[in-house]
Amino acid sequence: MRLNYLTKQLSTVKRWMATTLVCMLAITFVWQGAFFSNTSAMAAPTATFIASADAGDKVQEKTSRDAGRAKNFIDDTADKVKEAARSNASKVDQTTDNGSFAERKAKKDAATIQRRADEDSARTKEAVDNTKNVVERTVENIKDAFGK
After folding, report:
1. pLDDT tens, residue by residue, 61-90
2. pLDDT tens, 39-66?
3. 126: burial class by Cβ within 10 Å (0-12, 13-18, 19+)?
4. CA–CA dist 48, 22 (Å, integer)
5. What are phi and psi of 2, to 5 degrees?
6. What are the start-end ranges of the H helices in the chain?
7. What count of other Cβ atoms lies within 10 Å of the Cβ of residue 100?
8. Could you give the CA distance from residue 51 to residue 123 in angstroms, rounded to a whole number?
């Protein structure tokens, strides 16, 4: 059975009405949740502020500890990269004749990789220090703002 023109239009209108109804219900539930939420937490005493001195000290300690861990990880990774470069150059050296092009190239590449590993590790550790300093300054500023 084929739908005629009027039935197709009614079907389309029904779909649009159903979609509109679902959207309106979703908006209503979101609206209701926003205005009738439990606001008793807003009246909590100031001791639960995030910027309390104790919480600020904890954040700074954790930041320093995590920065140290990140630096150790960066050093370990740089050492592994350098060791892999040395190992690969050594393998090429063992399999080639003395002074061959491949041997010289492998040694040159190993030196380049080791130099870049040192540079990248220094840059990354500097970025970790900068991030740690930013976090600590921010915590200090927050503590100062709420301390006054």
Report:
1. 888 888 888 888 888 888 888 888 888 888
2. 555 555 455 554 455 777 787 788 888 8
3. exposed
4. 40
5. -95, 140
6. 5-35, 53-95, 101-147
7. 13
8. 31
